[in-house]
Amino acid sequence: MQNQVASVPAVLTVELDIETVTQGARPPAPLAWEDADRLCWALAEDLQRILGPLQEYGFVTLGGLYDLTEVLRPGLPMVDILSELYRRSLPDTRFQPQVMAIGTRGEEFPIPAIAPECRPGAGPLLAIPFLFLGEPDAMDELGARLEKTLLEKGRASLKTGQLIQDSFGIKALNLSFATFNDLCALMKIQLENAELGGLWELLEAALFTNRPPARVTLPEGNLFLVDGGEAFARFLTFSQWRAEQPGHEDPAAGYARYQQLQRQYTAGLAAHGLQLYMVEHTPELVAAEIDQAASAARMGAMPPDTREVNEVITSADDWENVAGLSLTEHSRSGMGPVAYTVLARSADGQVLYFANQYPLAPESIQRIRQHWQDQAAACGIELELIQPGDILHSPDGNQLVPWPEAMGTGH
């Protein structure tokens, strides 16, 4: 018979100076086991001071600093992994309280799946995760005690603060204990203040396995679906977006805003560990039945390695007499390129190839440029790269166009 062990997760939040984060510094590497063990006992002492006697519970601490996006992942895998590790450490079928610290052995973190990622610019609020464990009947009461007490009274001691400063080599502005529910509430507020409240709706559906699928549709034309640990983002070309937003007074600004939100939402979903898929538009995505929409999203999902969307408008079979090849970069201040228009003409002015390409990842920008540079070289001509610094469209606002066709169109 296996040990029956339930758990209650929480964290010590570590607030860093915002300037440290904006300079792109990485969070410190995780602690060696000996330092992680000292940190573990310091946290246990603080928590006993705040919550009262805790000797009947097991306690596991991770000796690393984690971005909140690493802690709040679909299904909370960190909690499952630590619970299973603790259960396996028990000598027989009976639960026994014990204290465990997880740190590096040599240069390696012992559990790669939950090792701190130490991404540049992570923070400014980092977390040291820990877990209380015990027999299932005993954990409900402890969970309620944490929710009632931890956020209000959960300040780490000066001793713990000094230990963290010395161990990680950082200066923390604030050290506070918080439950996972507290973290979720904090993230919800932060995203709503950044006018990204819909992103929290999607993340909330992903974090907890008992939640139904979620769909968020934004006025700017973005549509997102989350089902479990999978996220689907509908992608619209400029023409498709315009068909849904025919009355927009400034199509260039409107599509730029659509692309900006697309990047913010997909980056947020990916940062929390969701498997992200771009999806071609189908009417079923906006169907009233959410399960039907989720099925349509899976059917229309692009392969995970898709890095660009190609929209071919004109394509001739014969390129032998190509005389000119241009690549117009559609961009917006502060965003970088959102699309490229490729135009190939023959010596007599005939359009041989006319297409729009949409990069879905930063590395696609250089790949698109290099591809057409190579294509021009193969044809014995030079590629004309045109960067007008705006999104160029036809006079009716329904199609991206290359320079110089956009001259005088009032885009």
Task: Please characterize this protein's 3D structure.
This protein has helices spanning 18-22, 33-51, 68-71, 77-89, 136-153, 158-168, 180-193, 197-207, 238-244, 251-271, 290-300, 362-378; strands spanning 6-15, 58-62, 66-67, 99-102, 125-134, 174-179, 214-217, 223-227, 230-235, 275-280, 308-315, 322-332, 336-346, 351-359, 383-386. By secondary structure, the protein is an alpha+beta fold. It has three domains: 6-191, no CATH class; 201-289, no CATH class; 308-386, no CATH class. Strands 1, 2, 3, 4, 5 and 6 form a six-stranded mixed beta sheet that branches. Strands 11-14-13-12-15 form a five-stranded mixed beta sheet. A four-stranded mixed beta sheet has the order 7-8-9-10, with helices on both faces. Helix 7 runs antiparallel to helix 8 (197-207). The longest helix is centred in the middle third of the chain and has 21 residues, at 251-271. The radius of gyration is 27 Å and the shape is elongated. The N and C termini lie far apart (71 Å). Mean pLDDT is 91; it is low at 407-411.
